[in-house]
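Complex 188.
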Amino acid sequence: MTVLKFSPSVQHHRANDEGTEPTPISALHQEVKSLDLPQRARERAEEHAFNAVLTAGAVLAASFIDTLDRVVRPITWTGNPPLPENQLMASAVTYLGSADGQRGWWLHYTRREVGFGEDGDLVHVLTLIAPCACGTYITVELVDEDALIVMLDELTTPPGAPVDCDFRLQVRGAGWADTRHDSTEPPF
Ligand SMILES: [Zn+2]
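Predicted structure with zinc ion bound:
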């Protein structure tokens, strides 16, 4: 590694002498002007989406070792860029399958801000989305692996089939609005 000697006075003097070299601040403006901003924004969005995919896989590997991590292949995640206008961070989603080949189960990952200011933090949010018997979709936020195990253990419908509309785990997920339960559109 080469260590450059810090000698601002010499550089400053030389630049003035020649009179051709732009000052750093005008060079900086020039650099910014030459950037393709829309392209840069697209690249950033893709980066965020890709990171969401990586993090989703890491969360399963760390916190859902005996369940989701064993059945969800990392390659199956689809990343989505953040939607700042809707205050949504980047997310990832993977399809878990269906009983009738039409209305299926999904696993969704994103992050959410909790708290404010210096106490604020970002938490991982994993959500299971299942078709409901009434024709809509139910979403259940997975607090941890035990909650998932209890939930699936209590389920009496066949794997991938729609769940009962009064499915009590919907209540367990209370505190978080089940915004999709009024939509008959597939979530993704
Ligand atoms: Zn329902």
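Residues 132, 134, 136, 165, 181 surround zinc ion (CB under 6 Å).
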